[in-house]
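Homework-ish question, so no full write-ups if that breaks the rules, but can someone show me the predicted structure for this set?
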Amino acid sequence: MSIKVAVPKETAEGERRVAMESSVIAKLGKLGAEVLLETGAGSAAHLPDSAFNGASIVASAAELYQQADIVLKVQAPSLAEIEQLKEGSVLIGSLQPYQHPERIAALKAKNITSFAMELIPRISRAQSMDVLSSQAAIAGYKAAIMGADLAPRFFPMLTTAAGTIRPSKVIIIGVGVAGLQAIATARRLGAVVEAYDVRSATKEQVQSLGAKFIELGITAEGAGGYARELTDAEKQQQQAELAKHIATADVLITTAAVPGRPSPKIIPETTVDGMKSGAVIIDLAAEGGGNCTLTQPGKTIVHNGVIIHAPLNVPSQVAVHASEMYAKNLLNFLTPMLKDGAYAPDFSDEVIAGALLTHEGKIMNESIRQLVEGAE
Amino acid sequence: MSIKVAVPKETAEGERRVAMESSVIAKLGKLGAEVLLETGAGSAAHLPDSAFNGASIVASAAELYQQADIVLKVQAPSLAEIEQLKEGSVLIGSLQPYQHPERIAALKAKNITSFAMELIPRISRAQSMDVLSSQAAIAGYKAAIMGADLAPRFFPMLTTAAGTIRPSKVIIIGVGVAGLQAIATARRLGAVVEAYDVRSATKEQVQSLGAKFIELGITAEGAGGYARELTDAEKQQQQAELAKHIATADVLITTAAVPGRPSPKIIPETTVDGMKSGAVIIDLAAEGGGNCTLTQPGKTIVHNGVIIHAPLNVPSQVAVHASEMYAKNLLNFLTPMLKDGAYAPDFSDEVIAGALLTHEGKIMNESIRQLVEGAE
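A: Not a homework solution, just the prediction itself:
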């Protein structure tokens, strides 16, 4: 009897992605796994059941969970969904343990073996499983498109019989995966692009995409490829210097995030007040509260003529390709655990061990265990 | 006493543009004209009064019209606005005489000398005054951006550690100024682009932008650079052949318009039914009823998973640059009429005569005269 990999319809509000894609079904088949899909699981991504060639379509989530050996999810299952999981089954998804400690406790109580994709160590072997990167790439691309759509100005230079329109200036704050894709997309559209990051090591990447690196004389290289937090004095200097550059922007895209913490407030109201009327801010850090103090997560507001757009779950808006990349990340994580048609994870592998959240009735990640159960 | 050129705030619903721009104010000044601007005229375009350096700001439209020798407008003035115009003054704008015959009659009755920018003959000397072209360029660019924003798919190819996302296919129907800008913008974003036009002469232009020309074996070159109407048999053949191509599209942008007539219906429901779920149609011909039979002008609908977006007055969404280009078109038209600081049009000039709509109590354009007054 082959292993049953089950993919339910996501239930979180606004979530359009689905944790499966047709090419992944075929590859799992070769590994001896059968894919079960809840009917309509792809509908919010404009993917009908027929787009999942080779999957067995199941009429309801309850029926799906009863049969599942391994459940693949985009977002963490709700408590009601965890209730339906089969005791001892395996769950893989972006489980956001820090936001949902009560769900981790429920997974533990139900003896679920759960893996959080965000906890996979960022080593080169695991790049192909990196959902943070794949979804950030989508978000960065989309941020530039949203900026172009909301702006009352043209991005490219336009030469006409009546004269020439100068290209827009797009400034990007935070040069991670999302920032780099935003730079590349704004450049493709013909905008003049400048970018800033506290990590000066990003300068070459910015320049290689044809953009100008903004130098402020402050650096904050941190661990794991992220930025460390700045001191208050550094923050003030950063804000004042940045404000001068930002005053010239037609579109500002901010992507600065510190994992597990609220987004740093690097765009105060005074900076927005210095911007031109009709300028657009796309605050990609809205999930963590936003990089701009005026940001209202999930909303689009206008402040003194400046349009501040703070979308949540941006990858979900590009649901077809975001799902495809996410499903491929899951496949790459799952593949080494499937041997000769059987589920046989090597828990000593640093990638598997790093992602492991709950197993055999225990919380395996120490900092999350402390969060859920308290320090001992 | 210098000539007073007056620019009111546009009053038509959804109109954000303004018929003036700062560089045009300076140039008119050198020609001996003074620019008067109604306060807030640029506010919908995110242009505060202070953006119109050199213009005299006037508190109300009524006060503005009392002083005006020449009034510059984006859209045709309403009957209430015409009521406020000074007897014998000059009006220049996109007056849409075929849509508003009652307003033309009112302009005649009020002894206004009116010029319709759309009626300027399309000769090379007049290219710099061509508002149809300048605004269509904006609309074509914006159509590609709207397509990218509404699509659940990435436009560019994306290569990641987890695999490669193929680029989207964008198909553009109608290769005029708008179609060419849509092609160029979709190409910039990395999409694979195909385009179709009944005028086979557009093939080279399409190819020069890196897109593929769709050959159907039907041609319909018409007068003045527009397409002639097809016969019913030609239309059926065109639709059937096009449908096969369109079935492969991720985004379809239609721009087919025949001047003064409803937009040709080249995308029937059966063609839409053949499209993939999540495909997007941007119907730029919505003002004339649309190129798709399902189009609801001004709305976004979903039909069997296909998103059909039919925006009205697209240039208005890019109001800063659309206003700038429009104002430059007006300047180029107005310049030859201003001699030694005086308004002195040469009515024998074919450009000026071509645009002339009403003058000295008469309707000067014969086909519009017949429309308004009936044949004699």
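Now go work out the reasoning yourself. Hint: The longest strand of chain B covers residues 33-38.
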